[in-house]
Amino acid sequence: MQPRADFHEDFGLSGLTRVVQSRFVPRTEAGCLCTARNVLEVEGQPFAEEVVEDVRRLTQSSLSDDVLSTLWLAATEARFDPVAAGLGIRAWLLRIADTCVACIREVEPSFDPAMPGPAGHPEIRDAVLAELRDIGPALAQKAVTSLYAPPLPALVPSLEEAVTELGPDLGFRLFLRAMKVYLVPIGPGRLDRYQRIGRSLGYNELVVTDGSLNIWYDLED
């Protein structure tokens, strides 16, 4: 796997959802998969491998289908709702992983996806949970009142389950995606804490802000 610091923007499934969120992506299964393939062709094998690992971690988890659906809809601004289209959320995520594997095997035919490693870093998980719970009321309000994203009243508890079950890496990236989609205001103090969490996970500093965090520099938090 490529070192995390080498990704200069969001990566893995969270990075892919940032692109799927675009209003230029058709609200269809085919449109999303075509967009995914285009992203993978540009970003290359390391990005695709991260997507596959994220999908496996999600689909093999004990998180309910409702939680997985909430996480997907929040991350993509509900550009495509696989459940409404008659697909199970796990089946849909695995279809994305299959697309990634097919792209990789075009250049490395023997590629075999590795099983996700242990989530690890309980102290970082606790830091992510603390930040999520602190901003939770504001995010929960935006999740039901935003003019720009779908109402998801279960978003905050779903994110808490994700961080707890999936670990701080994918959990933190999904948390950041929700913050960006719902345009929750944060100040420089909170941004600094997010950046510290990102550094502890080995991220390039650009990953945390990639995708338009709503930063108010006169906000004290």
Secondary structure topology:
Blueprint: H1 12-20, H2 29-43, H3 45-59, H4 65-76, H5 89-105, H6 122-145, H7 155-166, H8 168-181, E1 185-186, H9 188-200, H10 205-209, E2 214-215
Parallel strand pairs: 1-2
**Beta-strand percentage range:** under 5%
Radius of gyration: 16 Å
Name the strands of the widest sheet in spatial order: 1-2
Distance between the termini: 36 Å
**Poorly predicted runs:** none
Main sheet specs: 2 strands, parallel
Overall shape: it is globular
**What percentage of residues falls in helices of 4 or more residues?**
55-70%
Alpha-beta content class? mainly alpha
* H-E order: HHHHHHHHEHHE
Mean pLDDT score: 93
Individual helix count: 10
How many domains is the backbone divided into? 2
- Number of separate strands: 2
Structure explained in plain terms:
- This protein has 221 residues and is mainly α.
- It folds into 2 domains: 4-105, no CATH class; 122-215.
- 62% of the residues lie in helices and 2% in strands.
- Helix 2 runs parallel beside helix 5 (89-105) and helix 7 (155-166) packs antiparallel against helix 8 (168-181).
Spell out the key features of this protein:
mainly alpha, 2 domains, globular, 10 helices, 2 strands, 221 residues, 62% helix, two-stranded parallel ribbon
Could you provide a short overview of the structure?
This protein is an all-alpha fold and 221 residues long. The protein is built from ten helices and two strands; from the N terminus they run ααααααααβααβ.
